[in-house]
Amino acid sequence: TTRTGDADATLAQIRELATAGAELVRVTVNDEAAAAALPRIVAEARLPLVADIHFQHALALAALQAGIAKLRINPGNIGSADKVREVAAAAADRGVPIRIGVNRGSLHARYQELAKRDPAGALVQSGLDEVEALAAVGFHDVVVSVKSSDCGEVIEAYRRFSQVCDAPLHLGVTEAGTLRAGTVRSVAALSVLLAEGIGDTLRISLAADPAEEVVAAWHMLAALGLRQRF
């Protein structure tokens, strides 16, 4: 949650997250200051980092140059087909996967009518379209998330997506809420999916210290008998 351009603060938070048990850390790369700080952050971080990019393909290229472990982009908002192709080629050259992040709160206008009739279906279709956009330029090393703040939509969307696409899935409930309420909402949805064998990575998103997200996730995994840390 730090400003990525502040490398000292960002590295301090990464260390806190590592201590809490995080295995991946997402950092926002939203301006030139963030891109400039990224080589140092990547070099000194104890964990693989995911660069979250919106709209500016040049920042995605800079993140790849800095040695990022994963990109989080949506081809639909990164620019023209040529820009998508350029980012995909650079990621492929470095063996870097791309996470496609579909979010109920920021669906493209073309999905709005479908969302009124079938909210989970709109998430699924958006995700499939983004996968296809990368496949069209020869890139297939993708991870997909189809998030909503509604638990029922999250469960239904991930169930349906897993039936039609074999891409790894990143689980999450977006804007889940405060420490207690957000943990409950996230566990209510994610534990159902995990118990069904759906999901490869996950984040419990809270309006709280990010380390609390990691602790909550580990407790959930332990309660389900999937992984133990404590």
Describe the structure in your own words.
With 230 residues, the chain is of the alpha/beta class. The protein is 53% helix and 12% strand. It has ten helices and seven strands. It has helices at residues 7-20, 32-44, 57-66, 75-78, 81-94, 112-117, 119-135, 151-164, 179-195, 210-223, and strands at residues 25-28, 49-52, 70-72, 98-103, 142-147, 170-171, 201-202. The strands form two sheets. The protein has a five-stranded parallel sheet. A two-stranded parallel ribbon has the order 6-7. Strand 6, helix 9 and strand 7 form a beta-alpha-beta unit. Helix 7 (119-135) packs across helix 8 (151-164).
- Strand fraction band? 5-15%
Secondary structure: number of strands:
7
Compute the gyration radius: what is it?
17 Å
Determine the fraction of residues in helical runs and give it as a percent range.
40-55%
Distance between the termini: 25 Å
Average the pLDDT over all residues and give the rounded result.
Answer: 94
**How many strands, what sense, and barrel or not for the largest sheet?**
5 strands, parallel
Q: If strands are numbered along the chain, what order do they take across the biggest sheet? A: 1-2-3-4-5
So how many helices?
10
Order of helices and strands: HEHEHEHHEHHEHEHEH
Give the structural class: alpha/beta
Low-confidence stretches: none
From the spread of the alpha carbons, the general shape counts as: globular
Briefly characterize the structure.
This protein has 230 residues and is of the alpha/beta class. The chain contains ten helices and seven strands.
